[in-house]
Amino acid sequence: MPYYDIVFEGCSADGNAARKLGFAKIGVIPEDISFVELERSGMKDRGCIVSGPSGSLISAAAGGVAGIYIPDYNIDKRLIRTMADNRTVLCISLSDPMRLYGLRRSRLLFKMGKLFSYAKKEKVPVSFITMARSDSMMCSYMQIIEIAKLVGADEDYARESVGVTNKALLVGR
Q1: Which of 7, 50, 60, 101 is most enclosed, with most CB atoms within 10 A?
Q2: Cβ atoms 95, 134 nearer than 8 A
Q3: What's 69's domain CATH number?
């Protein structure tokens, strides 16, 4: 199965890097993917949408964006239900726990696991991507699969999310 990842500009996402890390393609934000930051409920943290128009996260999910990244990993049941109704992908960034250590990393992995479990229960497709901002944060497809398993995905689900789900983000629905 071919695997896919998404990173920010500034990473070596050329064909050579993709091959070395085991990917068929590494998408770059914003070259291959639109990435729009949105204010969420007047809060200071920002929700980010992968590939889609601006607006609130719920209206964006209802509007048919390809995927939504929730940086604080808090469960918003209404948002998750809207994402499930519209087959919007929940994007889980693996660069978030990679930049933390100790108790902060453990807490984040716990929140990621809870969000993943709830999304999976509601039948929201979940994508595990690195969203690396530098070459040192890039992961191989096997590292992504192992971290996905750490937050609760089984082997088959993790492989499908890095393969089929991530491909859908890159080429659209």
Answers
A1: 7
A2: no
A3: 3.20.20.140
